[in-house]
Specification:
By secondary structure, the protein is α/β, with parallel strands linked by helices. It has a single domain (about 5-245), classed as 3-Layer(aba) Sandwich (Rossmann fold). Helix content is about 50%, strand content about 20%. It is built from 10 helices and 11 strands. It has helices at about 5-10, 15-20, 40-45, 80-90, 110-115, 125-135, 150-160, 170-190, 200-210, 220-245, and strands at about 25-30, 50-55, 55-60, 65, 70, 75-80, 95-100, 100-105, 120-125, 140-145, 195. The strands form 3 sheets. The protein has a 5-stranded parallel sheet, sandwiched between helices. A 4-stranded mixed sheet has the order 6-3-8-7. It has a two-stranded antiparallel sheet with strand order 4-5. β7 (about 95-100) and β8 (about 100-105) form a beta hairpin. The longest helix has 27 residues, at about 220-245. The radius of gyration is 19 Å and the shape is globular.
Length: about 250
């Protein structure tokens, strides 16, 4: 990616016209540290026909996953670099990011597509993206912060993706863990992030649906319990990071 494209992405600000178009679209966002189970929860929630998953755009080529080739409009909207740049210049993105030299983003047209079929937009974004959505003052937005049940379970989940151990250089591992540390700190200090613990996928998905659609309020004692679990996770994560640094 050339410097001018990188700067165009870094300087992108969601146009006010896009924010206004998005404001009345019912949206549920799942955020949280990697390995918390967000994607699996979304797959479970999609069995409820009231939801429709937001499809993001990318400038990478389709690839094969488990022997199946990705499809345009199902897995991603696969755009050329020129198409993506045109959409940036036209202010079509809600958010756009440079990911390893490729352009990824969420298009306002996708949210309007979901709204036009009377569905609820369901997506997962990082905590900074969730903050952006919250800043738009949307009329019907729910932001869920998914919490693993405990540190050891979480470590097993993220290690399981790499054959049972955290792979990569010491610097890469610390970068991933430090990122999780920042996300947890942010969630503990943001009252707009509703904490939900993911012990069992189906139960967690039901809890989120009850909160987002059925209007179930989360009791203060339940939030306190979730935050306590999050603080314990944070404490264990700090100890683990220090052990890696000392190796």
């Amino acid at each position: 990616m050339d410097e001018s494209t990188r700067k165009l992405i870094d300087d992108y600000q969601t146009p006010e016209s896009v924010i206004l178009r998005l404001r009345d679209i019912q949206t549920v966002i799942l955020t949280g540290i990697t390995g918390a189970g967000k994607d699996t929860i979304i797959r479970s929630m999609l069995s409820d026909e009231r939801f429709n998953k937001v499809i993001t755009s990318t400038t990478r080529a389709p690839r094969e996953n488990n022997g199946v080739m990705e499809n345009d409009g199902t897995d991603y909207y696969f755009l050329s670099q020129e198409q993506a740049l045109s959409k940036i210049n036209n202010g079509s993105y809600i958010e756009v990011n440079n990911v390893h030299g490729l352009i990824y983003g969420s298009l306002i047209e996708e949210y309007e597509r979901i709204d036009s079929i009377n569905k609820i937009a369901l997506t997962t974004v990082d905590y900074q993206g969730a903050d952006n959505f919250l800043s738009f003052d949307m009329n019907n937005l729910t932001v869920i912060f998914v919490i693993p049940p405990d540190f050891n379970t979480w470590l097993e989940r993220i290690s399981g993706r790499h054959g049972g151990s955290l792979e990569g250089s010491k610097e890469d591992i610390l970068k991933r863990l430090t990122s999780a540390d920042k996300e947890i700190t942010h969630a503990l200090n943001n009252s707009h992030f509703v904490p939900v613990m993911n012990v069992e996928i189906q139960d967690c998905a039901k809890d989120i649906i009850d909160i987002a659609i059925e209007g179930r309020s989360v009791a203060e004692e339940d939030i306190a319990d979730s935050h306590e679990a999050l603080r314990e996770l944070h404490y264990d994560l700090h100890n683990y990071i220090n052990r890696i640094k000392d190796k």
